[in-house]
Design a protein that fits this description.
Blueprint lengths: L2 H28 L2 H25 L5 H24 L13
Helix pairs in contact: 1-2, 2-3
Length: about 100
Amino acid sequence: MHIELVIAKLVTVGLGLLITYQAYRGYKVHGSKPMLYVAIGFLFISIGSVIEGVLFDVAGLSIFLAGTIQTAVVAVGMLVILYSLYGQMPETTNGEDGS
């Protein structure tokens, strides 16, 4: 495997995990359920960014099957983030709508 590709993948996973951590901190500090879903979504996307190579090189799966699994994992992460944006939000009472 090319060292440049390994470095690029490690940087991508590192950035994804940093975003995951910060979103989780936002959930813990502010109790924001959508931030929890953002954290979970980025965790899936971070894992998906490297899983293809692992499945192909280590587990010996075909490149087609490894790519299909990677795409599915990333898609699940995106769906979870999308849910955090459009999912059911808590009702606000009068005077708490920020206007």
